[in-house]
Write a structure and sequence with these properties.
alpha+beta, NE0471 N-terminal domain-like, 3-stranded antiparallel β-sheet, globular
């Protein structure tokens, strides 16, 4: 687990930026973080129970609150604030961004749903 040395909320770009001691950086869009929230509301309580979150194209991050030394609690402009994003989960979201995003877009299309 890598702990970021700097956390910035880039409101104009609508993303969360995490900088690490080795010089690496994660830039995670608000919409992506919202639809991948680790909360039970989004992920469900067991395998196969994840909800398809729609209509979040314009959601923003309204708050970033450290939770102990292991995570962040993010608050979103749609009122969602129950997900605790651990450092490991944020790194996973960064590593798997392209794959997860394409899977999300495919799920939206299959459901006839929209990002808007």
């Amino acid at each position: 687990m890598s702990v970021p040395v700097q956390i910035k909320l880039r409101r104009a770009e609508n993303l969360l930026e995490l900088s690490y001691e080795d010089g690496s950086m994660l830039r995670l869009p608000a919409e992506y973080l919202r639809v991948e929230s680790p909360s039970a509301e989004v992920q469900g309580h067991g395998p196969g129970q994840a909800a398809l979150v729609t209509g979040k194209q314009h959601v923003g991050i309204t708050g970033v609150e450290p939770t102990g030394n292991y995570a962040l609690r993010l608050s979103f402009s749609d009122g969602h604030d129950t997900g605790i994003f651990t450092w490991d989960y944020l790194e996973e979201l960064g590593r798997e961004h392209a794959t997860r995003w394409q899977r999300y877009l495919h799920r939206l299309e299959s459901a006839g749903a929209s990002r808007a």
